[in-house]
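step=encode ok
step=design start
structure_in=
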């Protein structure tokens, strides 16, 4: 595949690092800062799909490059799917990971059903149109935060059949099974097949 330049529409360094590690070598990524765009593009939709499309559409419009945006979040069974699309702002508009994790552990105090899943929707928007790629990973919410790897809710998310959280597991292990990996692999296959 010849090198291709895409705009990566995220200001979240944790997401950007994972996406770069997961995409095949022929793909080069420009950042929002390269186009003087704010690091938080508006995401006012009520689904992951709406938000991913909203960010990728704006990125494509402003840069002229094919644009990739990821919208993701955590759905907790005992909380009827919350925080869902509000995952980043669960504890308030500051998008504070520590406060989000503390609020989640508080909401689940005394709750035996810890089942949860991470979901990602990646949108690719370019002159050929709009394409969506989805991924998810099932797991459970730990009783307390453990580990410093990853970002966001990783210290409290134990993927299925693991007693370790994503915060305790090496990045390579997370990248082999995560919601984001599943979505990125679908995107990578799509890009390779259309070359
Ligand atoms: P958004 O996709 O930027 O709206 O935010 C997603 C929210 O989910 C943020 O609070 C992230 O920290 C969290 N999140 C998304 N993916 C992951 C992940 O792989 N690990 C931990 N937290 C995540």
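sequence_out=
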């Amino acid at each position: 595949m010849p090198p291709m330049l895409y705009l990566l529409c995220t200001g979240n360094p944790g997401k950007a690092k994972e996406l770069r590690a997961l995409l095949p070598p022929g793909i080069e990524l420009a950042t929002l800062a390269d186009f003087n765009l704010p690091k938080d593009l508006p995401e006012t939709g009520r689904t992951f799909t709406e938000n991913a499309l909203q960010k990728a559409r704006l990125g494509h419009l402003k840069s002229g490059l094919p644009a990739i945006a990821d919208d993701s979040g955590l759905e907790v069974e005992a909380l009827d799917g919350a925080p869902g699309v509000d995952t980043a702002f669960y504890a308030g508009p500051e998008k504070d990971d520590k406060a989000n994790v503390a609020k989640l552990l508080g909401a689940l105090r005394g709750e035996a059903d810890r089942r949860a899943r991470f979901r990602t929707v990646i949108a690719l928007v370019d002159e050929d149109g709009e394409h969506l790629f989805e991924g998810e990973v099932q797991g459970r919410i730990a009783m307390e935060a453990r580990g410093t790897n990853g970002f966001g809710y990783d210290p409290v998310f134990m993927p299925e059949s693991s007693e370790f959280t994503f915060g305790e597991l090496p990045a390579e292990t997370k990248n082999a099974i995560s919601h984001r990996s599943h979505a990125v692999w679908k995107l990578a296959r799509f890009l390779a097949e259309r070359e």
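step=design ok
step=annotate ok -> The domain at 4-194 is CATH 3.90.950.10 (Maf protein).
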